[in-house]
Design goal:
Helices cover 35% and strands 12% of the residues. A hairpin with a 2-residue loop joins β4 and β5. The N and C termini lie far apart (38 Å).
Length: 206
């Protein structure tokens, strides 16, 4: 490329990769001829992978029953579950909720890690905590699923760039009536039913 202008870092501008040249190089064995078919299959594959880490253990059922006690609507149940995950399960990436260097050194990502482990250890990665929310919502009789979402901090989602690399964030979604509500319960600063600003208005796959 010739005559590439200098990079001006401006507040509230689009993500850097929307303004600067960049290249995504990846290997794939997928058929990339039809974006709609690709993303439909990707959604199924992501869902299957997500479900492998969902375990509605007896502890999850018991704790969920205690958490949603007194809630009369689905919205109230989801708010109670979200608040439980946000305040009782420590996010390994935040110092604000009491995570120490020793906690980080002890925390090990192991094969077969599931939501039962997360609720018992009361600590996890953001994706672990959002998966626990889905398991607890399911234990409360609600329809809930994992979500992979794009982030405006990185690049806007384009369906013709057919790779899951663009969907970097794991969130949770629960269905209330005919409406999907999205949650990020891993962030101790977010109230129930909100996601980070960089995920607002972005494409997501449930």
């Amino acid at each position: 490329m010739n005559n590439v202008p200098a990079w001006p870092d401006e507040p509230d501008s689009p993500p850097e990769r929307e303004l600067r040249p960049w290249v995504l190089i990846f290997y794939t064995d997928q058929d990339l001829s039809n974006p709609k078919k690709f993303w439909t299959k990707a959604a199924r594959d992501m869902g299957d992978s997500f479900k492998k880490e969902l375990k509605i253990s007896s502890d999850i059922k018991r704790i969920t029953g205690e958490v949603v006690k007194g809630a009369s609507t689905d919205d109230e149940k989801l708010k109670k579950i979200a608040n439980y995950c946000r305040t009782n399960i420590r996010n390994i990436r935040y110092d604000a909720n009491g995570v120490t260097a020793e906690d980080r050194s002890k925390f090990k990502v192991k094969d077969g890690l599931n939501t039962g482990d997360t609720i018992n250890s009361k600590i996890g990665r953001p994706s672990d905590i959002n998966k626990l929310f889905v398991a607890m919502a399911a234990a409360a009789g609600l329809e809930a699923h994992g979500v992979r979402a794009a982030s405006s901090d990185m690049v806007y989602f384009r369906s013709d760039l057919m790779d899951g690399y663009l969907l970097r964030t794991t969130l949770a979604a629960a269905k209330v009536g005919k409406e999907w509500k999205f949650f990020d319960v891993s962030n101790p600063y977010l109230p129930s039913g909100m996601v980070d600003a960089d995920q607002e208005g972005m494409v997501a796959i449930v």
